[in-house]
Amino acid sequence: MEKYVIEGGRRLAGSVALQSAKNSVLPLLAASILTEERVTIRDAPNISDVACMAQILRELGANVRFSGGNVTIDSADACCHEIPSSLTRELRSSVFMLGSLLSRFGRALIAYPGGCDIGLRPIDLHLSALKRLGVGISERDGFIFCECARMKGAEILLDFPSVGATENILLAAVKAEGRTVVTGAAKEPEIVDLQNFLNAMGAKVAGAGTDVIEVEGVKALHGAAFRPMKDRIEAGTFLFAAAACGGEVEVEGVRPENIRLLLHKLRENGCKIHAKNDKIRIESGGRLKCNRRIETMPFPGFPTDLQAQATALNASCAGCALIVENLFETRFKYVPELQKMGADIEVKGRTAFVRGVERLHGACVTAGDLRGGAALVIAALGAEGVTEVLDLSHIDRGYADFRTKLKKLGASIRRVGV
Ligand code: UD1
Q1: Which of 63, 74, 114, 323 is least crowded, fewest Cβ atoms below 10 Å from its Cβ?
Q2: What's the pLDDT at 79?
């Protein structure tokens, strides 16, 4: 077990080289077994979720190699359609493997997926969509078994724009017989990335980024090399850190339209934002103002994956903020940790009411999930005194070289064993 030791109160300055998007790379890795040919994903981030997904592919019989920042997958010899529960429980994204395994082998056996402890996270939308494609599904003892010799394209209406369900449908439909039309699809930029990757492999997918996606099934896919989009959540995390500490920070590689609402909220706080092409610079100084209200929504709304970081910033702004979490039931578990640092926050169900305090102070806190952990780091960087953040395994799931990048900006942060 390791912890961060952070001395707060340093201004941040400089530019951050962003990693490839975690939420793009994970479905791309799942997609890699759709072909027997070699697939290369460039600039794969060095995070434990990617390592876990690579391990899942190896369990299936694929050869997965990391070299020079890239990951290469050769799945010609893959023959296994079962994913051990030890791995699916660790990584929620393993649920995408249902679509890929069905496309490749006509069958899939996986344990119910895990991931961050932020709510119920059911997979009913995934399963009912697969049924529409002709898949037979049985569930027993925490395992899901899916089978279908050849899936058939269908009209699928999603009640809610689930990111994972949309991606799973694409992975299942690319090699199904005929045409699939998904209405009510999630519009996240990472879905556009998946579409581009699948098309680079020879698939026929159109419409990603809108709420109607059409897939014309093809007989086979071929190998491809692909560079994923940069991580907009990582970009947002660094912008919040800069806002909380004061200073001037630039992130490069994220299109401003992909984080439009975040930039709007930071301007509301009183930060200056300069956005041009894919370069975003934040200037923050003096006491910031609370946002009146932040409400998480599917894209293009405010991302739930930045909710905790936004709350951490508001905790020491002037005024009051109402933070509403609409996506996940229990995504305020980090709040008691912020309270240890002096934050004045009241949580009722899906709403957090933040009364900004003059300054947070150092404390010993524990990261309970990935984004909640990032929020504690942001709070610590802006706080007075020394904070210890324990249980870095959650943060390691999604941020590569987090400490090194923050240190380069001028933060005082060490990683030490406990
Ligand atoms: C993805 C992201 C995650 C992000 C989330 C919302 C990845 C690897 N993860 O997760 O970081 O926080 O999108 O932007 O890309 N739901 C159902 N039934 C289902 C599926 C989902 O009720 O079958 C509900 C969930 O419980 C949740 C909401 O829909 O309340 C959003 O979930 P979804 O969009 O599916 O998120 P994930 O794909 O799990």
Answers
A1: 63
A2: 87
